Amino acid sequence: MQIETAARPTLYYGWKMVAACFVVASMAWSFGLFGASVYLPVISRSHGWPISLISSAVTCFYLVSALSAVFVGSSINRFGPRPIMLGGTLAMAAGVAAMGQVREPWQVYITFLTLGLGWASLSSTAISTALAPWFDKHQGRAISTALMGASVGGIVGVPALLFTIEQAGFATAVAGAGVLCLVILLPLVLTLRARPADLGLLPDGASQAQSMSSSRSEPTWTRRAAARTKMFRSVAVAFGLAFLVQVGFLTHHVAFLSPRLGDRGASLTVSATAIMAFLGRIVLARYVDRLAPRQVACGVFCLGAAALGILSVAASSAVALVIASLAYGLTVGNVTTLPSIIVRREFGAVSFGAVYGLVAMIIGLSTAIGPSFYGVLFDLSGSYRLPMLMAAALNCAAAGIILAWQRSSSVPHTA
Questions:
Q1: Four-point Cα dihedral 134, 135, 141, 142, nearest 10
Q2: From CA 392, how far away is CA 306, in angstroms rounded?
Q3: Are 179 and 231 in the same domain?
Q4: Torsion of CA 11, 15, 17, 19, to 10 degrees
Q5: Residues 104-129 pLDDT 10s
Q6: Which residue has the higher pLDDT, 373 or 98?
Q7: For residue 53, what pLDDT is reported?
Q8: Structural domain span for residue 322
Q9: Residue 378 has pLDDT above 60, yes or no
Q10: Is residue 215 one of the residues assigned to a domain?
Q11: Which of 132, 203, 213, 222 lies 20 to 30 Å (CA to CA) from residue 36?
């Protein structure tokens, strides 16, 4: 007697896209965003150049990545993720490898500018835009899961990079990192597809009947039309403030903790903060599609404000410093993930690349101010109490803005 077995359903290709983007995020954050903080002191010590010179090159890294974001999003919408991420892989590999070959100060700027182009083409704007056409019902989970790779970059990638530098030397380590980018990312990026229709599929792996029953017309937004809406401005302003606070905090975190915890204690706390960011992303991925993302963002901003407030008044308590740092860590990954989820839900998949690219550019320009924001306030006051208090106030403002300007009924312009 022959027993018929039901065919196992094949994995929806969109989740393969998520897995690929997870790896892309891991590499991009390891050697791009987090890597920049590793290259800075090593280059300064190796050549005897002032930190201010290298810091200004890092600022250029942030600025070029911010200005590139708007073109990355629209280009992926038009051409698909493959050519953009291939170019980003080549730029990142070249920028990382060149870090160990600089001999003159002007070369530092070229390497960080190249790295910035690679980072822009492989980070949150590129990943979110690549995934936008593939998911509707599960878009929050897909983006959150892919961007967990960013936390892996902080938890695993940076310690591995530091260990390799210690064992093999800076030039050899960064050359190896550049080769690793090419070996891992080039074949992976080639598997990316532009949209599910190219494979005869529907978003979320839905059947044709499910698609017909849930179909709705999706308006098309131009950048200009989107920028006129309160919902666009609220996301750009609120997350611009939150990223300013976050990147500034992460830049100064070790310097803030070391006087009380020592270098080892500060390092362990920073690593634990990165782990908390990863856990926060896991929770977000599990529940975000069931929740209102603006309300989630408000809660994240308020938690961050509370943690920063504690840090501002508890500098003498090691326990309070660690607990507040861990609490802030829960917000770090979600601040990165939530703006793309909100834009995707409110502006749709068709317009996502163009709209989110503009949002990301505004956020990126604000982000570049973060390290200087804390530094200037520290110099003026002589401690980190004032910077932390002001950062907490900015997070509170972001919480109010994200809720005050809800989705409007504005009709987009397609021209």
A1: 0
A2: 7
A3: no
A4: -110
A5: 989 999 999 999 999 999 998 999 99
A6: 98
A7: 80
A8: 221-405
A9: yes
A10: no
A11: 132
